[in-house]
Write a structure and sequence with these properties.
Elements: H1 20-55, H2 70-90, H3 93-98, H4 100-127, H5 136-161, H6 165-179, H7 181-188, H8 190-195, H9 201-227
Helix pairs in contact: 1-2, 1-7, 2-4, 4-5, 5-6, 5-9, 6-9, 7-9
Length: about 240
C-alpha cells in the first residue's frame, strides 16, 4: 500500500523566507560597500596629496599650489575622509536600531567633519589659484554645492534637535550626496579622458556637475521609497 505523500513527516526543515526588514538591511549593507568603493579613488588621491604636503614632493598635478597654505587642504582631506567613510554607516537602519548611542556620537563626527570639508572646500575654491582646466562655471558650481552642503548639515542638525527625524534624514542624505560627488565624478570624467577632453573647461564642468546631480537624484528616489513604507520601530533617522 502506497503512503500518502501529503501525510509524510517533514524530514528537512524549511528555511523561512527573509522578512522585508531583513532584505532591506542586506540591501543597505551592500550599499555601504558601494559607497566605500566610490570613496576609494578620492581617498587615495587625498592621502597622496597629504604625503606631498608633508614632504614637499609634488606627486599629483597641481599640488604645488597648496604648498604655501597647506592647512585648508589638509582640513579638507581629513574632513572629507571622515565624512564619507564614516557617513556610509550612518544611514543603515539596523545599526541605528541596535546602537542608537553610536549613531548619535557618529552623527556629531559626521556633522563636524562635513562642515570642515564644506567650509574648507569653499575657502580653497575662493583663495587657491584655480587650475587652467577649471573655468568659471565649475567655480560657481563648487561655490553653490559647497554652501548647500554646509546649509543642509546645519539644517539636519536643527531637525534632529527638534526630533523631526524624517526631515533630519533627508537633509543628511542630501548633504552626503553632495560630499560623495567626488566619488561619482571619478566615473563621470572617465569619458572626457577617453575623448581627450579632460583639460577642456566646458566639458569638465558638465561632467563634474553631473556627479553632484546624479547623486542628488538617487537620494530623492531613496527618500520617496522610504516615505511610502512605515518607519521601523525604534528607527531614528
Amino acid at each position: 500500500m502506497n503512503a500518502d505523500p501529503t501525510h509524510l513527516p517533514q524530514i528537512l526543515p524549511t528555511k523561512p523566507a527573509p522578512s522585508a526588514a531583513t532584505r532591506r538591511d542586506r540591501a543597505q549593507g551592500r550599499l555601504v560597500w558601494l559607497l566605500l568603493g566610490l570613496t576609494l579613488v578620492p581617498a587615495l588621491a587625498g592621502m597622496v596629496r597629504l604625503f606631498s604636503l608633508a614632504t614637499g614632493v609634488s606627486l599629483l598635478p597641481g599640488s604645488e599650489r597648496f604648498f604655501a597654505a597647506p592647512v585648508p587642504v589638509t582640513i579638507h582631506i581629513i574632513g572629507s575622509l571622515l565624512f564619507l567613510g564614516g557617513g556610509a554607516f550612518q544611514f543603515v537602519d539596523a545599526l541605528r536600531r541596535r546602537y542608537p548611542r553610536w549613531h548619535k556620537m557618529g552623527g556629531r563626527v559626521f556633522v563636524g567633519a562635513g562642515l570642515a570639508s564644506a567650509l574648507s572646500g569653499l575657502w580653497m575654491n575662493q583663495f587657491y589659484a584655480l587650475p587652467a582646466h577649471d573655468g568659471v562655471a565649475l567655480y560657481l558650481m563648487r561655490l553653490a554645492f559647497g554652501a548647500g552642503m554646509a546649509a543642509l548639515l546645519l539644517a539636519g542638525l536643527v531637525r534632529a534637535m527638534q526630533r523631526r527625524f524624517p526631515a533630519h534624514r533627508g537633509h543628511m542624505l542630501r548633504s552626503y550626496a553632495i560630499g560623495m560627488g567626488a566619488g561619482t565624478q571619478v566615473l563621470t570624467t572617465i569619458p572626457l579622458a577617453m575623448l581627450g577632453l579632460a583639460d577642456e573647461p566646458g566639458p569638465r564642468a558638465v561632467a563634474m556637475g553631473a556627479g553632484w546631480i546624479i547623486n542628488l537624484l538617487v537620494v530623492e528616489l531613496i527618500l520617496r521609497r522610504h516615505q511610502r513604507r512605515p518607519a521601523p520601530v525604534g528607527a531614528m533617522a
